[in-house]
Amino acid sequence: MTEAEKIRCSNDLDLFDALGRDPTIVRIKERIARLEGDAPFRTRRRLLATAVRLSPAMAPSLRSMADACIEKLGVAFPLELFVFPSPQHNAMCFRPEEGRLLVMFSSALLEDFEGSEIVFVMGHELGHHVYAHHDIPIGFVLRGEEKPDPRLALSLFAWSRYAEISADRAGAYCAEDQEGVARALFKLASGLSGRTISFQLADFLSQVDQMQEEDADPGAGAPSEDWFSTHPFSPLRVKALELFHRSELVNSSGGSIAQLEMGVQKLMSLMEPSYLEAKTVAAEAMRRLLFAASLTVARADGEISQAEVAIFEKFFGKGAFKETVDVSALEEDLDDRIGRVKEVASSTQAMQVLQDLCIVARAEGHTMEPERRVLEDIATKLGFSVSFVTRILEVDLSPD
């Protein structure tokens, strides 16, 4: 087992293996393979046309960082680096083409990040390749013609978050600088360059520690929708890496791997839909809201189609929908259910219900304007921006 394999998050690997056996995933991967055989993807050609390739002579320090990461992570392919003009801090790694691994950075990231911060980002992107994260075609699955079981969609989102934890560990392993890594995540989360704000690791970690696992408020200091995506909340990533640095994977006298993974799972539970099975007061309120809101959204365009019924029953169980269900009564009760969730559930839990509702809504393949208006109304009443709905409905689902 390589060092990179040793540090991979166990939940990432477990979910990756399970998803790889899922019949829907298998069928879509086979379809992609046939398409690639008929007309190979030409990502490199597009990059050569729209971005700037950074040769070793143009970016010697960046090339040196890349070489160090390649050696540490055991990357077998030669690397090509590209930069594209963007004010956003972003980077991405593409599947190998023509025997080359392609990594692209935004211009803002290369201008604003320094030293170990860039190494962390480089290692993170290469980590996605080393762990074969692109073998799970999450974007194709959730945006393709064959719509997945909503529970599969939720599993894909959960796996994506754990995949980011693994990639973060790969980046931290390459950077060997806990403060530099935290500073990089601070810049990614805030959009700041660090030139006007003095970053303090202890203060940032203190913010994370104050996020109580049972009653967290991710909206403090930033729009709540910015904390939610296919990636873990940014402060949770910092906390997860703090646990990583305290473990035996980094420190020979640190905590066990089992303790590390238990700690990470506890953190990540803030973003996972355990309320579907839990028996707490908050979980019951969340389920009741999701049930009523799903049917309200489905009927927003005038009627509930058979396809929508099928999707609903895949999510809640066969027979959950009955012709005798009084959807009008559920619609009238919706505000009370929203109020109950606000009363007994945390902000992160309310966000989870809203995200799951958006996933159910988009599982049919599209959302009509009346459906979107209902979703936005629910978001507003829960205390979130309507842009949260837009982000979930239109989110880019590929690992980056």
List the helices and strands and how they pair.
Blueprint: H1 3-6, H2 10-21, H3 23-38, H4 43-50, E1 52-53, H5 60-73, E2 79-84, E3 91-97, E4 100-106, H6 107-112, H7 115-130, H8 138-143, H9 150-175, H10 178-190, H11 201-209, H12 234-245, H13 257-268, H14 281-298, H15 306-316, H16 327-344, H17 347-362, H18 369-382, H19 386-394
Parallel strand pairs: 2-4
Antiparallel strand pairs: 1-2, 3-4
Helix pairs in contact: 2-9, 5-7, 5-9, 7-9, 7-10, 9-12, 10-12, 11-12, 12-13, 14-16, 14-17, 14-18, 17-18, 18-19
- Largest sheet: spatial strand order: 1-2-4-3
Number of domains: 2
Q: What structural class do you assign from the helix and strand content?
A: mainly alpha
Mean pLDDT, as a whole number?
A: 84
**Cα radius of gyration in angstroms:** 22 Å
User: Portion of residues in helices?
Assistant: 55-70%
Shape: globular
Biggest β-sheet description: 4 strands, mixed
Low-confidence stretches: 212-229
The ordered string of helix (H) and strand (E) elements is: HHHHEHEEEHHHHHHHHHHHHHH
**Percent of sequence in beta strands:** 5-15%
| Strand count | 4
**Count of DSSP H/I helices:** 19
Distance between the first and last residues' Cα: 25 Å
GO cellular component, one term: plasma membrane
Organism: marine metagenome
Cofactor: Zn(2+)
Keywords: Cell membrane, Hydrolase, Membrane, Metal-binding, Metalloprotease, Protease, Transmembrane, Transmembrane helix, Zinc
